Every structure is written in C-alpha cells, then in structure tokens.
Automatic annotation (TrEMBL):
<keyword id="KW-0808">Transferase</keyword>
<protein>
    <recommendedName>
        <fullName>Glycosyl transferase family 1 domain-containing protein</fullName>
    </recommendedName>
</protein>
<feature type="region of interest" description="Disordered">
    <location>
        <begin position="414"/>
        <end position="436"/>
    </location>
</feature>
<dbReference type="Pfam" id="PF00534">
    <property type="entry name" value="Glycos_transf_1"/>
</dbReference>
<feature type="compositionally biased region" description="Basic and acidic residues">
    <location>
        <begin position="422"/>
        <end position="436"/>
    </location>
</feature>
<dbReference type="InterPro" id="IPR001296">
    <property type="entry name" value="Glyco_trans_1"/>
</dbReference>
<keyword id="KW-0328">Glycosyltransferase</keyword>
<feature type="domain" description="Glycosyl transferase family 1">
    <location>
        <begin position="229"/>
        <end position="391"/>
    </location>
</feature>
Amino acid sequence: MKVLWLTNILFPEPCRMLGLPEPVLGGWMYAGAQELMKAVPDLKLAAAMFYPGNGLRRLDGESMTYYLIPAPADMNAYRKELEPFFREARYAFGPDVVHIHGSEYPHSLAWVNACGAGNTAVSIQGLSSVCAGFYLGGISRRELVKFVTLRDLMRRDTLFAQQRRMKARGRYERELFSKVGHVIGRTAWDRAHAWAMNPEARYHFLHPTLREPFYRSEWDAGACEKHTIFLSQSHYPLKGLHMVAEALPLVLRHYPDARVHVAGPDILSVPAWRRNGYAHYLGKLMERLGVRDRFRWLGRLSAEQMCSQFRKAHIFVCPSMIENESNSLGEAQMVGTPCIAAYAGGMMDSVSHGETGFLYRFEDAELLAMQVCRLFGDMDLCRHVSSRGRRAALARHDRSANAEQLRRIYRDIAGDTANGTDGREGGRKEDSPCSC
C-alpha cells in the first residue's frame, strides 16, 4: 500500500538533509510515521510538506519519500497557487490513501480542491472553527482594548485580528469537512464537531503516538522540585496562563515558595515596543497580583528537555480554555507527572478526576488553586495520580496498537476507494474525482 501524508510541519529527516533547524512542534507525527513503517513493512510512505525554497523538490530519506512544496508567505490565507504543486506530488507518488494531518489551515482544503477527496482522510488536531470562539480566553474585549500595543497596531496583529484570522480559517475548515468522506479523531469532543459539520463522513478513532523520549522517562516523587508548577504553552489567551496567575496568590498563601515554570520564550521580558497585547495584559495582571517574580520562562524545549521539566515539576497544569486532546497533557501523564487540566474540549477523555489527574472549570481559579495545594500537600496522592496516569497514558499511546489501528484505517479507506465509494456511509459515489 502507498500512503501520502500532507503536513504543515517539516519533519526532522528532511531538515537534516537540508541543513535546517529541526522543528520543536509536531514531533509526534514523525514518531507515528516511524512506528507505522515498523508495523507495516510493505507500506510505502511519503509526505508532502512545506519548505523555505522554490519549486517542488523530492527527497528520498531512509524509509520515506518527501515532496517539498514552497511555503506560502501566509498560511492563514487560501493559496490557489499551491494546487499545481499538490497535483504534481500526488501524480508522482500515486497513493492509495492520502492522509491530511490537520484541518486548521486552508492548504488542507486546497489539496482536496486540487486532487479530490475519494481516498482522503483528515486528522483532527485542533478545530479553528470552534477554537476561534474561545481565542480571547474569557477576557472581555473591553478589557483587552486597554492593552493594545504599538506593536499590535503597526503589524495589524491585535488579539482581535488574530481571532478574525482564526475565524476565517474556520470557514475553510468547514468547507473541507463538507467534502471529505473520512475523518480521523481521538476524543468525544472532536467526534461531535466532525459529526456536526458532516454527519455522512466516516469517523475513525486513533490515539496519537508520542515522541520517543516520553516512553522511557518516569517522574519520581522524591526527586521532583517541590512546589513547582510546569506549563507547556503561554503565548495567547486561549492557553489560559492568566488563570494560573489568578490562582497563584491563593497557592502562595499556603506555599510561599511556589513557582511556575513555562515552556517557550519569555513574552514579558521583550522590549515594550515589541510586546503584544496579551503580554502587556499579563504583565500588568501579574504586577497587580504580586506574582511576576514567581514565573520563569524556559525557552523553546526539545523533547528531551520537556521530559526533564516534567520530571522536575511537582505538578503539570494544562489550563487551556479549549483543547482537542493536549499532547503536552499526554506527555506529562506518560512521564507520570501529577496533572491538573481544565474541563474543556477533549481533555476530560484523558483525565479521570481523582484517579489519573484532576479537572476544574477553566474560569474557576479558586478550584485550580485548591487542587494545586492539595497535590503540594499530599505526596501519597501525587504518587497515586502519577502511577494511574502513567498506566492510562501508556495504554492510550501504545505505539504498536496505534500503528496497527492506523493500518486498519488505511485499509478501510483503500477498500472504499477500490469499491467505487468515497467512504461515506451509504456508499455514496465519488463527488470530486481527482484531477491528477
């Protein structure tokens, strides 16, 4: 079987071949590809992805073929000029199945418009059409207007403009879902939204395979840095850092040495003329609450460095207002770090409250603070949550099982194509024949 992936992340292998820095994000996709090829030796796998170059370029890796497509200047806009590259890559490889990783950006729709959807599945990573409504993280527009910066105005990049761009991407996403016959997802939340957008599409359930280092790292209650909270993202309101700031004074009342470590660049220490509106809002909020000195940004972290931070942390918090299934939450549970997550999106599928972690309503800073203090004060509870969370994550992200499930999905899609259908329930005939 020949399978072609479409991704918006340049994998590590072509990065090395081109002398480019390897990406921090998306490593789980590459890990999944490696496991899939181990499980299915006769599989021929190729990936179409974007690179900083001109013209379509083919690279032959050790076990995969890469079709490199010139990256558009703006990933948020529909780029019709991508369509000839997509047709050329598809024609060159001749796949039995096309697997589009992610629906959030318009290039996914451009592929379907160029090549049809008869043997194509779309994996849900996040849903722009849904997440756009949560983009401002529960902060009122009236409040955020006060923190618009010169940088935001000069770049036309206020939080409101960012939200509008996400809404625009969401319209392309809805059109994409109306055309595809197969959807691959991993939570009850994404299944519900896929069904709402296209009840005729077939839904295939698949847990992600995570990056290799998380399978061999394990949290130790005796070795962690007591009273530290680790967060994996912070750079826009949907991710909820401001709610952790709101909760921290209550935590400090009981644990004066508590501190928060955050992966990613320090958005508060850049010069004022480069600071965006959310950073401006956060800085003022932390100053008002007296907690600015309790937050430390760690910069961009590799998989190994993320593992190290999960092991060091006393607890991991995922405070997002909406998520499909947070890969960082899965990674934390794999390592065994005690976890707290907002009851939002698909995260309740990953956390059994009181057993594999704790859940709280996104806007309830008091409940978040109490749960942090509960874990800080009870190492036996931490060990309980750690062991059960790790056990559940090891089963959920089992590499062999997930690779086998993906093989079955591909055979199902290829079988639908061979039978003259596009995979929609009821055996609907192909609506959009491939132009390749």
